[in-house]
# Entry
Amino acid sequence: MASRRASGLNNVEIFGPAMQQNPYPFYHELRESNPVYWEKSLGAWIVTRYADVAWVLHDSRFSANRIEAATEQIKTPRYRPLLDVMSHKMSEKDEPDHMRLRSLINKAFAHVALERCEPLIRNRASDLLDTFRTANGGEFMDQYSVPLPLLIILQLVGVPTQDTPKVKKWCDNFAFIALNYYTQLPEEKLETGLKSVQEFRDFLKQRIAELEAQPEDNLLSALIAAEHEGQKLSAEEMLANTFLLLTAGNETTTCLLGNGLAALLEYPDQMQHLRQNPELIPQAVEEFLRFDSPVQYLGRVAKEDLELHAQPIKKGDLVLPVIASANRDPEKFSDPDIMDIERTDNHHLAFGHGRHFCPGSHLARLEAVVSFETLFAKAHEIRLDSMRLTDLEYRENFALRCLKKLPLQIDFR
# Structure
């Protein structure tokens, strides 16, 4: 995201480089001093307290359709196809279109029972860790956190194994645009995003034709067959929402695995406690989601004039509810800046809130739980290799907090 300068934050640039390593002190200051902050250069309200973030995400007076809030840069005729695709995503729709799309996607998901997914996830995780062991250490993100959820969602959707590298590239390029399209974007990002959409459209058209002729047991076949009140997904809806499933189904879980393990390295006593009490892993995953949320913020647009903390939010204003800040709000969580894997009252907002609550949350949770179970079953000790936690770098996509690299040495059992 383009850098923004905020008064009252010691001249720190909102969503700029100074926040990249650790945004949480800045969120704290905004919650305390300016919980509904108008950033003029961005043209958006930044909302940071838990109650307010939950309200914005739940209240139907805020629209999920942010297409009109897109920067003029992406509205130019050349890049308009990017917005046309995003306008068909379920996450951009209000009722009744949102529920129609969600019902179709839920019907497709119903064909992929989670109990059938667990052995697949466990086998993939075990194989990746065996490769890591053979390499005698390495880079955890590239060798484990990235490929595990990617391989799972591609198999579930129905992408042939040989197409994995190019589909991953297309998804990464599209995800950057989809999360940041109402900000000033580098020209090269727009070009790669546009090219990826065009290439993925051609790929998907061919894949759908194959599955229509010979259906398989996967999400794409289920989406082709799904109906809601006599309606099916259009070609553009199929394209947009398959992109959504593939990107949301791998990127966020990749970030969760990396952020969660980095948090355990920061709290070695918690790492040891979790290793000795693996039954706490599901609870720990919820704490990873709260403590260092992969999705930092979402976007909404006010459908009418509103007021929040005496700030006048006008119809058409863009509002950015910051999930990661809400999940560190001391009004909601005790000692919010401390990671506690035994935290029980943990109603975090990492998967959103309200009608647009993430439909893939169960799969993401299962992948994370099985991943950490497999890791701790095989690993005796895990430590950073040749660097400090404070030296870890994060990807440039600020809306999605994700480590670039996590070099590890693992002593296997």
